[in-house]
Amino acid sequence: METLSDRIAHQIETMIADGGLQAGERLPAERQLAERLGISRPSLREALKKLASKGLLTTRQGGGTYVQKSLDAGISDPLLALLQQQPESRFDVLEVRHALDGQAAYYAALRATDEDRYRIQKAYEHMLDLHHNSDDPLDEALADAAFHLSITEASHNIVLLHVMRSLFTVLQKSIKHNLDKLYTIPKVFEPLSRQHEALMRAVITGDPEAARHAAQDHMVFVEESLQSIDKQQARHERFLRQASILAPNEKSL
User: Fold this and answer.
1) How far is 203 from 222, CA to CA, in rounded Å?
2) pLDDT tens, 86-95?
3) Which among 106, 135, 184, 197 would be 20 to 30 A from 12, CA to CA?
4) CATH 1.20.120.530 intervals, the chain
């Protein structure tokens, strides 16, 4: 028979699953959370213990209960190891994103709330602001990820959200993914900006097919741009190797 603490635990577990509480996030103070859920503090404590025993929550020294940081480790860790050994495998990740981003955008256009649309627009504006005012292209790449995740959150699909978070974690941790380089090339940034705006507007105006196509067209462009960057880098490395071989040997002079 389900107890009150079981129901509370399930409610908090749902908040974690649907993104209301994210990995590594600190839970509200016990009194505040109990009041928000309309329950007693002893019942809340029992529910938190159950979630901790399942590995979803952890208590840190100095106080506070947190959502476990390693929630996505089962997906992220093997892929991260693969990317570190075979950097070209990141294109496999981008191919998966081509499908998932399109679905996320489609459902976001159908299901987004006013609050979702507000967050999506703010995430888009933050990207533009960083481009004009930041000297760190990696900051722009991270803002790009946040923008796409805001759309995935608006899809209100739990599985999509957790899979996409894992994929972004993989790409961000992979040293050789080159996503930040996209923001250093003017001829690449301008189309990226137009694509992001088209995607945002399709979701906000509730046009699911346009949103899907905008997301998929964007991913094709990103993949092709990264392939071009790889080719240019490979040519540069070949040039340096050849220059080193052809350079006079100072010891023979």
Assistant:
1) 20
2) 666 677 878 8
3) 106
4) 72-244
